[in-house]
Write a structure and sequence with these properties.
This protein is of the alpha/beta class and 358 residues long. It contains 15 helices and twelve strands. It has an eight-stranded parallel barrel with strand order 1-2-3-4-7-8-9-12, surrounded by five helices. Helix 5 packs parallel to helix 10 and helix 14 crosses helix 15. The protein starts with a strand and ends with a helix. It binds manganese (II) ion (MN). Manganese (II) ion binds next to loops.
Length: 358
């Protein structure tokens, strides 16, 4: 297991790499190139520049999250071939710089979604939260505007301005795309990029849809064990793998998270782990919480044990955190609570390892 921390680069992130380096057991940084528009090639020099910064701080840069997939690929439009070609060149450039895991998602129009970016929890901390009831009757562009307002002046990952200005047009285009069509478009994309990933030694990791159910009537194809199995079978290659995210998949209590981590890690198709806790109040209602089990719904110990037992060596990050101790930052991506999350997971791992070796 390679303990990792997401960082948005020196221009966009408020957290210095030197602070990340001080989190006990922190080894690897997960980052991306943010100034290149979705669909265009990431130049090797730009990747190298960020890698050099990270390594100068005493950390590794082995994992990219995300190389986003252009909507034309998800929609199956003719321009997709050019974007797939660009994607392959980006993979080559990343491999040349030593990256071996690339995360992406295949969610139409919106990336992850919440209805409150700063819900006050009983202890006074604030957290990302979701309540289906709030969404009912809300127009997609109104929600997009709300997300932007609540983002503290930061651009949220997956909620880039150029994408959101197109919301209405995109909904029109997605009218003819159902689950099967979206899956066929994913297959086409994977057939285009997996041979390149294989050649250059990159493991692709698809992130589950968050939340794990359809929103605004848009299709979702990465929300259950059956969906994940189906995606792996679209192109049966070790390079076609998963980024399991406990907080995303776990919002649907029918998903057996521990079993999923165990199974997909055992068959060596789990390439990236996002381990965070949530408190689920009922279908379609949840808050993001601290990793500790006291007031949350998911079995963090069970997940870490599943990873340990199956010999998981890939990157793992604590994913999101709450805002605590007066910290002001990008919702979900402050320093303090994510550092606590990493430490909690490292503690579990150490204990499991000690028990496993006696
Ligand atoms: Mn995640």
């Amino acid at each position: 297991m390679l303990m990792s921390f997401r960082w948005y680069g020196s221009k966009l992130d408020t957290i210095p790499l030197s602070y990340i380096r001080q989190i006990p057991g922190m080894k690897n940084v997960v980052s991306a190139i943010y100034h290149i528009p979705v669909g265009e090639v990431w130049p090797y020099e730009d990747i190298l520049a960020i890698k050099n910064k990270i390594e100068a701080a005493g950390l590794m840069f082995k994992t990219v999250e995300s190389v986003n997939v252009h909507e034309d690929i998800k929609l199956g439009l003719p321009a997709r071939d050019r974007y797939i070609e660009n994607y392959c060149i980006t993979l080559h450039n990343l491999a040349k710089a030593g990256i071996d895991v690339v995360c992406y998602n295949f969610m139409p129009v919106f990336d992850w979604m919440r209805t409150d970016l700063a819900k006050v929890l009983p202890d006074g901390s604030t957290a990302l939260s979701y309540n289906e009831k709030i969404l009912t009757g809300l127009k997609p562009d109104v929600l997009a505007a709300e997300m932007e307002k609540g983002a503290n002046g930061f651009e949220l990952p997956g909620w880039e301005k150029e994408r959101l200005s197109e919301v209405k047009k995109l909904f029109e285009l997605y009218k003819n795309v159902n689950e099967e069509k979206l899956l066929a478009n994913l297959k086409y994309f994977l057939e285009g990029i997996i041979p390149t990933a294989e050649t250059c030694g990159i493991k692709m990791a698809i992130h589950p849809d968050d939340p794990p159910w359809p929103v605004f009537g848009l299709p979702r194809i990465v929300i259950s064990r059956q969906h994940l199995e189906r995606i792996l079978s679209l192109v049966d290659s070790p390079a076609n793998g998963l980024a399991l995210c406990s907080g995303s998949l776990g919002a649907n209590r029918e998903n057996d998270i521990v079993e999923m981590f165990h199974h997909f890690s055992k068959i060596k198709r789990l390439h990236f782990a996002h381990v965070r806790n949530i408190k689920v109040y009922g279908p379609g209602v949840f808050d993001e919480t601290a990793h500790k089990a006291d007031d949350s719904s998911l079995d963090m110990y069970g997940i870490m044990k599943a990873l340990y037992d199956t010999g998981f060596t890939g990157p793992l990050r604590p994913d999101h955190g709450r805002m605590i101790w007066g910290e002001d930052g990008r919702p979900g991506y402050g320093l303090y609570d994510r550092a606590l999350g990493a430490l909690y997971l490292n503690g579990l791992w150490d204990a499991i390892e000690r028990c496993g070796n006696t």
